[in-house]
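SAMPLE LOG
Freezer: B-3
Tube label: C17
Construct: single chain, 309 aa
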Amino acid sequence: MRKLLLIINPAAGMAKKKPRVFRIADWFRSKGYAVAVMTTSKKGDAEDFVRRYAEQNDAVICCGGDGTLNEVISGLMRFGSQKPVGYLPAGTTNDMAHTLRLPSNLKKAARVVISERPVPQDVGSFNETQYFTYIASFGAFTQVSYGTPQWLKNIFGHFAYVLGGLRSVGEIRPCRVRVFRDGNGDGEEGDYIFGSVSNSSSIGGVLHLGSSQVSLNDGEFEALLIRNPPNLIEFQKMLHDLRRRNFENSLIEFFHTSTIRLVFDQEADWTLDGEYAGKTQEVEIKNLHGAVSVIRREKQAPRRPGGEG
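STRUCTURE (predicted):
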């Protein structure tokens, strides 16, 4: 691995990180690598760079947030490239970086890229037209990730998400959904205020799942569905149990699945890896087992029996 395609999103992350981002290319060159640097200016640029330049290089290195990583991996999936991916986290929440156990320091993360080997990782297919790296979600607080202004994210980081969440609590409206998982023909219907299908140990920087519950390359996702609480007391108790990863609460459904189909009574907003993905009334999500190779520091521990809540 001597030739690197380095894709930088200068708009991602905390403002104080920006001056260091562009010095990373020189650091790679000082280690003997030939580096082609591409800088994004709008949504879709990273995927386009992958399409045009990935095959000319030995690896694709992404420097930005989880949304930038999503574009890079989506580009590899769409254009059939098998090039390994390195991730230099410079975003606000960096959920995927936590899951991959990558350092927040850019130079230390760059050392991981040149010292570790690529490991297969699952990718999510969303209605066979879009892809996600670590989470697809709908419902309450979903709009926070794409509705919070970038300048507020840059200044306050995680606190911006908390502020956005507090503003939306009074606007929670349940979705009527029929859920079909792993070929369940009849499905189960319910009123849900939130749902996610993920492949990550960190969701929104708030919910953290243990290694016994998450494996990045087991062919399965972790699905989380939260039913509509009857009152504020039950809502607060549910949040408390969720933070403690107590999935015995009757309002919380947590399970592993390789495929899931959700049919809504009306169109619902979705996000993929924290970016708005549009409205849809029916969604089919499939796990594409080991579809990409990601350079990370160490292998994830296998999920132990009994890890499912």
